[in-house]
Amino acid sequence: MINKLLLIFSLSFISCSAQNIKKIKKHSIEELLNVSLDLYKSQKSIDNPKDIFLILSSKKINDTIGFKDASYGIGITIIEKRNTKNIVYKKLYKYKNYLVVSQDSLDIFKSLIKQIPYQNINNQKLPDGIIYDPFNISFMFNEKSEIIYIYPTSRLSFFKKTLKNTEVIENE
User: Fold this and answer.
1) Do the beta carbons of residue 30 and residue 108 sit within 8 Å?
2) Neighbours of 64 (CB within 10 A)
3) Is the whole-model pTM more than 0.85?
4) Which of 16, 27, 31, 17 is nearest to 61 (CA)?
5) What does pLDDT average to in each consecutive run of 10 residues of the chain (172 residues)?
6) How far is Cα 101 from Cα 82, in angstroms, rounded to an integer?
7) Which one, 21, 29, 147, 158, has least CB within 10 Å?
8) Residue 101 in contact with residue 83, Cβ under 8 Å?
9) What is the rounded distance in angstroms from the CA atom of residue 150 to the CA atom of residue 14?
């Protein structure tokens, strides 16, 4: 009987935790993605969806020391196809006209992306030894789905000015 009660309590706790993560609205995630793409386009000369692809990730955060009050995070990485090598993936998706590799363990991006047939995106043209640094933005959220950290921190003011539907709380 006690085991059954513990199981029920555990399942309800997991369900409540998942509800907190799912609380962020689709339009807020889409806004973060679109604003990240706009920032990338403003900094790079390559913005054709055929020349780049996205890696979208989400994860529950258990590190309460390094990320105080953070409940979960998402990452948006934009990579030029010509610099892609050794990306491991089994499924490929599409967001608008952009190819997407999903590492979305919390299904935050699920409603925005559609699965497409597999294709090889590992097309590196750069010689070995040259390091390519992709464009990456990470957002950490509290339980209320407010952004509490943005990395790199140099992007904080840009996102605070640009986002219309998503609240940003100051980085500490």
Assistant:
1) no
2) 10
3) no
4) 17
5) 32 39 76 93 81 93 80 93 82 95 93 93 71 87 88 86 74 47
6) 16
7) 158
8) no
9) 26
